[in-house]
TrEMBL record:
The chain crosses the membrane at residues 6-22, 29-52, 58-82. Its EC number is 7.1.1.2. This is NADH-ubiquinone oxidoreductase chain 4L. It comes from the Eukaryota. It is found in: Mitochondrion inner membrane; Mitochondrion membrane.
């Protein structure tokens, strides 16, 4: 019964992360943080599911590897955007500008 409450809690937290991801359009850093929060909630759901079904947690290592790669790509985009434009506002740069 406790695992069911944990699943519901993780799903609700994932939905809150989705809402923040959709609603934050001003800064790239807030968008990346909400994306990482969603990934962590998915990892927790996956980990709880694998433990509940008595499977090995080997797949979670692959998931964490891809999550780290996603985080590194997001931070590199953030650093390159700050170096070229001076801030992380989405409104400060144009698509037509290279």
């Amino acid at each position: 019964m406790m695992n069911l409450y944990m699943y519901y809690l993780m799903i609700i937290m994932f939905m809150f992360g989705c809402i923040v991801f959709i609603s934050s359009r001003k800064h790239l850093l807030c968008t990346l943080l909400s994306l990482e929060f969603m990934v962590l909630m998915l990892f927790m759901l996956l980990f709880l599911y694998l433990n509940f079904m008595n499977y090995e947690s080997y797949f979670s290592m692959f998931f964490l590897t891809f999550c780290v790669c996603e985080g590194v790509l997001g931070l590199s985009i953030l650093v390159s955007m700050i170096r070229t434009h001076g801030n992380d506002y989405f409104q400060s740069f144009s698509i037509l500008q290279c």
